[in-house]
Design brief:
Length: about 900
Amino acid sequence: MREGQAPTGLIRREDYSAPAYRILSVDLTFDLDPAKTLVGSKLRITRDAATPAGTPLRLDGEGLSLLRCLGDGESLSFRHEEGGALIIDNPPAAETFTLEIRNTCAPEKNLELSGLYTSGGGFFTQCEAEGFRRITYFLDRPDVMAVYSVTLRADKAKYPVLLSNGNLVEQGSLDNGRHYAKWHDPFPKPAYLFALVAADLVCREQKITSRAGKEHLLQVYVRRGDLGKTEHAMASLIASVAWDEARFGLSLDLERFMIVAVSDFNMGAMENKGLNIFNTKYVLASPATATDADFAGIESVVGHEYFHNWTGNRITCRDWFQLSLKEGLTVYRDQEFSMDMAGSASAAAVQRIGDVKRLREFQFPEDSGPMAHPVRPDSYVEINNFYTTTVYEKGAEVVRMQDTLVGRAGFRRGMDLYFQRHDGQAVTCDDFAQAIADANPDSPLAANLAQFKHWYAQAGTPRLSARTRWDATAGRLRLTLTQSALPSPGQADKQAFVIPVRLGLLARDGRALPLQLDGEAAPAGTERVLVLSATEQSFDFVGLGDAGEAGPVPSLLRGFSAPVVLDDGLDSAERLLLLRHDADAFNRWEAAQRLLQELLLAALPGDGDLPALDEALVEALRAVLREDGLDAAFKELALTPPIESVIAEQVEAVDPQRIHRLREQLRAQLAERLHADWAWAWDAHQLREGYRPDAHQSGCRALANLALQMLVLHAVAHGDEVWPGRAYQRVKDGGCMTERLGALLALVHGGSALAGAALERFHADARGDDLVLDKWFAIQAAATEPLGAPGSVAPRIRALLQHPDFSLKNPNRVRNLISTFCRDNPAAFHRADAGGYVLWADVVLALDAFNPQIAARIARHLERWRVLAEPWRSAAREAVARVAGHPRLSADVREIVGKALDA
Ligand code: BES
Ligand code: ZN
């Protein structure tokens, strides 16, 4: 537990009550000094009509020193709660009064990176979720929205740039080489959206004119020397502004919109009103230092934070249980933005596949583990532990299903109504769904709203199973859909969900069949959305006389129309048909993945080798690889087998070594059987034009990199030196980071003898660039165990912890080295000698002493120890118990390891 922190209890959603006092406006002054910053705060406070005069006023505070406290100019008596909150037992009796506070805080000692802290010699803030209370005493809750005026005073030479939310109203010089700036934000906002920056930065700026003809100034602030890497972030911001106007009719409401990059940051980025603060990872990019994935990440995160201006800032959350109101909706919006930016329908499908992969790789495991919680949680100990993939990605799927149930135009009407009703308010997930339904009274969403909202209330991934009965003589297909949900912590019995199932039917020759349900006058289209609301429901399709003897093959859950696990009952011949002919690109990818996954699952029991791949499957994969007019990006996704953790999700007692071995054998077979095709793919996808991070070029590079990986793997197996030699050459002189990194990964994951030298070369070429060094750490953390020397990765990671370029204080470094090792390299992490687990525990405890948020994130990598087979299970449990038994643990880590051991 941090010093002076109260033992944190459980916060429950049902205990919500409206604030007794509200803050109308706040006038802040900062005398910035790294060791001791002086904060002056003048609050206009108003007592709620329902609050009796004289009710004690409790202000949140944490780790602060209070210097003085005046109420309407008179000194007030006060006391402190154990955690640092300030209690004023006798506040002024007037309905509205002024409270003046002076306090200090210590930015340079703030290694939690929450509140006001220093990084690279500048001052930065991070206030979501509860960081503002570490700056000054306040009603630090999202339903208290105030108008802010902020004056910053600091040394002019060290901190030439002084920024806060809103508009700059005044600036000038002071004595002693100091200067000041005064900012005013006209929009009332919760404290979590406050921000300030004081640092030596430079900026790229751009003036834009909105559709309405208003001028706005966009700025991207970075450290001196990084200006050349801001072009893509600025282009992404401009595109975001245009997209929100075009798609949702939402325009920028401020004269000035700023993004500031900082290299020590707990999260990806933060949507502070008019002053977004970003992790450098999501701002800085040049072809030489950033991969295509990095460029795409910047576009989506810049979009995400910008879109929060309406979904999060103008309309915010009533309480933190409603977090998905802003995060789920804004992830949905940034996903749609990226799909629209991708250009073509097929590039949009590639985007969708990536989003669904992420959901399955991260959210599904969370939803079946000890931290499983509903999209709108019922309780928490530490809110920072609930910025989860469930709240974000599953929350986005819940918004997407509403879109599916009301149609695209209906969803736009619903969003319009949401803004009309709630602009300027702090609201709930119920308010959102109600607006979407009310704007679409005839939709299946409106008809089933109460039941639909189980998606917000029930944890766990529902199972959906589909079976067909074919009547060839009548040309009739009965599709029976059944849903079920497993119990999750605190929720034994589940009620049926409303599940939109988008589907089509294919004839055995691959034709898309017209769809007509029994009772309908005529067929309508070849795709539609069925709505499953009961536990079991049957749908009769008629008029299918020409489907072929064996009957139609259903293509279900197209575009992944609901976040469920689907058991479609299809056999491999039917999957091969979908892989070849499905009009839905998502389901073509799905068919390929299921074919590969089933091979691995079938081979898992016992200890034999993976059987040789069927010629029909190899031929089908070859056909995909060679198909004209199919995106290279799609091919890369379809031909990459599901990762080990996704396979592990399907089994009861996980043997990470066995899964690794079989997947490696699958990779080796794909390398062998498609050897000539990989060589063709490599040649055919070399780019000669200048670098662009667009869908087409990224797709070519992704496929060429996969081909190179396969070619190196094959070469190493056959003692051939040509392809490893080419890969090594490319690490040295590749045209961009995506190519260089792809070549390096091919050597490292192919077990090439050149991998070591290539890694050294890559480190030297990084020349101290932080984001490139992050990659260097990540590659080593993800390295495949060399066959000859298994068990060598964990000791390597331990050695890297001591590397001069490594620091536990920098969250990006920790994520790249430790999370990559624990999450992306199961065969190295889960060793019989428990070396990985010991390292995990050591790192969690070391981090927890100064940055509990990051410590808790790392702690989560072992929360699902129960799914492991022996001996890993016992060894992992012991490591978790060791952390749990530590005498000084933060509430953050305590909540995670406590749940991991309890469940
Ligand atoms: N509001 C969050 C950032 C945040 C979350 C700050 C929790 C502090 C505590 C921001 O909008 C966000 O969601 N950022 C994501 C990236 C986004 C593209 C999903 C992040 O930081 O990971
Ligand atoms: Zn967000």
